[in-house]
Amino acid sequence: MADLFRAFTSIGPADHGKDVSLAGWAEDVRNLGGIAFLIVRQRAGTFQVTVKKSDADLFARASKIVRESVIAARGTVQPNRQVRNGWELVAKAVDVLGPAAAPLPLPVADKVGADMDTRFDNRPLDLRKPERRAIFSIRAIVASAFREYLERQGFVEVQTPKLAGAGAEGGATLFRTDYFGRKAYLSQSPQLYKQMLMSTGLDRVFEIAPAFRAEPSDTVRHVTEFTSFDGEVAWIERQEDVFAFLEGAVDHAIERVRAAGKSDLELLGASPVRPKLPFKRVRYEEALEILRGQGKRLRDGDDLDTESEKLLGQSLAKEGHEIYFLTGYPTSIKPFYVMADPEDPDSSRSFDLEYKGDEMASGGQREHRYDVLVGRMKEQGLTVENFDFYLKAFRYGMPPHGGWGFGVDRFVQKLLDLPNIREAILFPRDRTRLVP
Question: Model's pTM, two decimal places?
Answer without folding.
Answer: 0.94
